[in-house]
Write a structure and sequence with these properties.
single chain, 273 residues, Rossmann fold, eleven-stranded mixed beta sheet, 8 helices, binds 2-acetamido-2-deoxy-beta-D-glucopyranose, Lipase domain-containing protein, lipase activity, signal, TAG_lipase, serine hydrolase activity
Length: 273
């Protein structure tokens, strides 16, 4: 019973709220607590253009970001931006506000630094994935430049199954060079949005066929990969093939942050809870 309840994960964060306020916090090793930044604070010297610019999208008070921030700072990524927003009632329109704000923020960085090439990596957590996807779509309209990479940690149901104008793999591949996703649970019917889609396979939960998701698990597992190449995921297209051993001869790739960016396909990372 105890084991079952551990496996009975859930994540019901849907993107159906209006945006109350957005904050963009810039974190560096010198300012580990971060400073709130607006477009008017962006100057040529305030960004290290030689390093990737990481934007982490999180609905306020949903996930503890101290792990992901610390690991990125440890990796010497000097530009970490935390985008947090709050949602209240139902309106997707209001979400455009945060999308525009962030896209303009990034466009201003391009403008102020005068750089043709900046390495932009968007990391969306749960509903933050949807904001990140929309920013990736908006940015080329403003700057004619593409996002280098978009990592979605637990794309939400409403995101992947939204047929009405929601992002899909085709739109994404036009606007982003490389898309990777991490799911805490495998669902054969979900659209596979990424070039690489990782699925966490919980060893003690072989009978857990529920589709419940746990974005904290996806986030925490990804955090472990930022400064390590030790987590390896096995290529496989279904739980059945994984469990029957049909994938044992398939290739393994590094899971998470350091995934080779020419990789494609679905991969399972076996974890113990
Ligand atoms: C977030 O996690 C860190 C490290 O695990 C912990 O020290 C901190 O208290 C947590 N913050 C919150 C608000 O729970
Ligand atoms: C930044 O924007 C201003 C006003 O739109 C424009 O005149 C200027 O050329 C831009 N600078 C760069 C480096 O793109
Ligand atoms: C996937 O879709 C098929 C056909 O609609 C359905 O029979 C099946 O139960 C679905 N599987 C899951 C895991 O939802
Ligand atoms: C989700 O995963 C985290 C991290 O492994 C765990 O602490 C938490 O209990 C899980 N949540 C649920 C609802 O099982």
């Amino acid at each position: 019973m105890k084991r079952f309840s551990l496996c009975f994960l859930f994540s019901a964060i849907l993107f159906v709220g209006s945006v109350e306020n957005t904050s963009i916090t810039y974190v560096t090793s010198y300012l580990p607590k971060g400073v709130i930044m607006t477009t008017s604070d962006i100057h040529k010297e305030s960004i290290n253009v030689l390093k990737p610019l990481i934007f982490i999208f999180n609905e306020k008070n949903t996930h503890n970001l101290s792990g992901i921030i610390n690991e990125y700072l440890k990796k010497q990524i000097t530009n970490v931006f935390i985008v947090e927003y709050t949602l209240n009632e139902e309106t997707t329109k209001a979400a455009n506000k945060v999308v525009n704000e962030v896209a303009e923020f990034i466009a201003t960085i391009f403008n102020k630094t005068g750089e043709e090439y900046l390495n932009i990596h968007l990391v969306g957590i749960a509903s933050g994935s949807r904001v990140a996807f929309a920013v990736a779509q908006r940015l080329p309209e403003l700057t004619k430049r593409k996002v280098n990479r978009l990592t979605s940690l637990e794309p939400t149901y409403s995101l992947i199954n939204n047929e009405k104008g929601g992002p899909n793999a085709e739109i994404l591949s036009k606007n982003v060079n490389f898309v990777d996703t991490v799911h805490s649970n495998f669902n054969e019917n979900e659209t596979r949005l990424g070039d690489v889609n990782f699925y966490l396979y919980k060893k003690d939960c072989v009978h857990d066929k529920s589709l419940s998701k746990n974005s904290t698990l996806s986030l925490e597992t990804f955090v472990k990969s930022i400064n390590s190449n030790n987590l390896k995921a096995l290529e496989c297209d279904s739980i059945e093939n994984l469990e029957n051993g049909n994938c044992l001869s398939k290739k393994k790739i590094v899971f998470g942050e350091n995934v080779p960016q020419d990789a494609k396909g679905s991969y399972f990372l076996i974890i113990k809870l």
